[in-house]
Amino acid sequence: MLVLCIETSCDETAAAVVRDGREILSNVIHSQVKTHAPYGGVVPEIASREHLLKIGPIVQKALDDAHVRIDDLDAIAATAGPGLIGSLLVGLTYAKALAFAKHKPLVAVNHIEGHIYSICFEHPHVEFPALALVVSGGHTNLFWVESETCGFSRLKYTLVGKTRDDAAGEAYDKVAKLLGLSYPGGPVVDRLAKLGNSRAIPFPMVKISDRALDFSFSGIKTAVLRMVKNEGLEPRDEEATRTDPHRLDLLAGFQEGVVNMLWATTAKAAARLQPRSLILSGGVAANSRLKEVLAERCAAIGLKFHFPKPVFTTDNAAMIAAAGTAKFMRGETVGMDADADPNMRLAIGKETSGKRYRT
Ligand code: KG4
Ligand code: ZN
Asked: Which numbered atom of ligand 1 lies nearest the CA of 313?
């Protein structure tokens, strides 16, 4: 079962060929980070144009690296949402054209489901029911996931918690920008925070006081903004920041605040819902401190913890292919009228209050 998959939901032009949903024959990623870095964030119009330029060569490279021809493929999959509409349309339309010209079935994949499937390459036997914490630049969602296996059966998702304001990755990117660090902020803050003392500067712990299983990062971000303003902190690059203990402490404190917020809500959900495992995925799942803290705390409460290796944390087509293969195996193909949906939902219902899960 050979599936070619195309992912262009944001600022990565990616294509992969995956056999049987698990064996990665190729995984090609063109990152537009350098293009968007001067703006401190992704510029949608520029992203679509760069996808247009790169999509042909990237798909060809994915086929060449995998040593397969289009004729050998069983299906073509593409991300159909959520994401930037212009970016999504480039990948989905390219996949449609290939599927139409070569008479191949077409599968439309939800990007967030792809992130959840990113753990399946290394952990094909996840213990369900599970909690899935998806933390990226655009999303911070906690899903209740039910299934018998992580194989090709349908996974059932219920949204139990989400951010009330910024996504976790967005908070990293904004804080990095405030201090003059490069885009994307996550990796650079992760590196620098290791050099600081997270307890040196007290950060307010955001309290989600009701029973909702939500997250909030704007308070922590605003605390950094206030310090930058009050102390008149000028922008400094990574090199200069390394020799500034105060900034390192500030970044360490910020990161600890984000990680504690993520764990506090996840722990509340775990206590209430009693999952068998926790799945971490999305760009912020690359964060070393987050993985360390979640691993420690999950071990303490006897909860299995799975996270993808770094190459599968940020956007890639292999994870979308894994989710796409599962859909294809279930016969969930789409026609040429399939549309991209920038706000595509994954979960059933909009349950975020947690009331249904009161134990
Ligand atoms: O999943 P992703 O590639 O794109 C979206 O779907 O949004 O996630 C990108 C986000 C960015 O905000 C980036 O700053 C963050 O993931 N990120 C990290 C780390 N690596 C990437 N955040 C914290 N620590 C990291 N090591
Ligand atoms: Zn993503």
From this structure: 1
Residue-wise pLDDT tens digits, 28-43: 999 999 999 888 888 9
The per-residue pLDDT for range 178-221, each reduced to its tens digit, is 999 998 999 999 999 999 999 999 887 777 777 789 999 999 99
Which pLDDT tens digit goes with each residue over 321-353?
Answer: 999 999 999 999 999 999 999 999 998 655 333
Ligand 1 centroid from CA 198, angstroms: 21
Same domain, 231 and 300: yes
Residue 357 lies in a domain: no
- The gap from C-alpha 213 to its chain's centroid, in whole angstroms, comes to 19
77 C-alpha to ligand 2 centroid (Å): 16
pTM of the model: 0.93
State the residue range of the domain holding 224: 130-307
The answer to whether 189 touches 226, Cβ cutoff 8 Å, is no
The minimum-distance atom of ligand 1 relative to the CA of 139 is 7
The span from the CA of 20 to the CA of 146, in Å, is 22
